[in-house]
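User: Can you help me understand a structure? I only have the sequence.
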Amino acid sequence: MYMKKIFTIILAFAATTCLWAQVTTIPEHIPTGYAGEITFIFDPHAGDKGMIGATQCYAHMGLITSESNHGGDWKYIINEWREDSPKGQCYKEGDVWKLTINNMYDFFGCPTSTDIERIAMVFHDGSFGIRTGRAVNGSDIFVYIGEYYKKCGTNLFWEYNSTTHTISITGSGNMFDFEPGDTPWNHLYNQITHVSLSDGVTSIGDRAFDGCSELTSVTIPNSVTSIGEWAFYYCSSLTSITIPNSVTEVGGGIFYGCSHLESIVLSENITSLPSCDSDGRLRGFFEGCKSLTSVTIPNSITSIGEFAFSSLTSIIVGADNKTYDSRENCNAIIETASNTLIAGCQKTIIPNNVTSIGKWAFAYRSSLTSITIPNSVTSIGDGAFYGCSALDSIVWNAKNCADVSAIKDAPFDGITSQIKSFTFGE
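Assistant: Let's start by predicting it. Here is the structure, written out as tokens:
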């Protein structure tokens, strides 16, 4: 046990500590097992800025311990939400709010043997108030304790260079999986521009860089074998990325909302481009990648989830792929065995030997203006052209389609009113 000394946890910007933090501590690093007095400094002008103008401030606090199931599983919570408890009452000093406690184990009522990973907190302006202070993306605020301060995997550690705005991750093994707003660098989400993973890192965890809106480049070493769900979700400044051939598994939604992604090289050893559920709605692998116009599907791919693409003008399937093809330079992905077109794009020309157009095959292709359905097509899946906001001309040659009476319904659901030309051809 450390000698007792004054330990002040200050929630805010303090002149002697990191100027980018919403919540700072004095000392900046809280050691494991520390039992001294602590003071918090909270800057209401940082994070989500929800407490600007508040005339009183209370801290709703708890712990994330080794017994927590995830980053939102608080233990040893000191008070009820919006409780005007003296225990969590902060005092104003200049532009910041402060809170002083004598001993974190006594304060939270937990045994000294508790493995504390983080102190979790959200601020509010009392039981009759309307303001809350959270991290900039609306998540909980965390102060990391002891070895967890710079830890992002069992044997992985991270550092941030404020000059180059680079997160460097070193060590060996897998990265932790994270919940939304749960990463130790969450407070830097709008400052990180580069991520560098050292050789020895074997995975990128779920939501690792979720919402890092200024991230422009990522260096992934050949030691990485898997990338988790939503890993680069809404990294809207990311323009290009190479996934090395060492990667064999990727999660769903990892590039969802990467609106400036222009170029990607996929691993030749991944087998799936999965979709991922979000609030009951499937999100495609490249959905929302508005600047991505061309992609090459590796020979190894055997499964492609729904809504995989949204803005492509060119799709090429590897010549040796055994499951899919892009025959006759059609700019589409066709399931070879069934002759089903499962994904098209703005410049797709449907080959005459395609017999089926799959569910959601062209959904949300906002630049698609016209399409010709060949006479070989006998079925079209529901929502095949859903959300094609510019599609206004259709040539229908599919005289053997199983349900001609429904051609303007399910496949073209939501856009029938905008179709100016619907021509029956051959």
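Now, to help you interpret it: The first strand starts at residue 23 and ends at 25. The chain is about 0% helix and 25% strand. Let me know which part you'd like to focus on.
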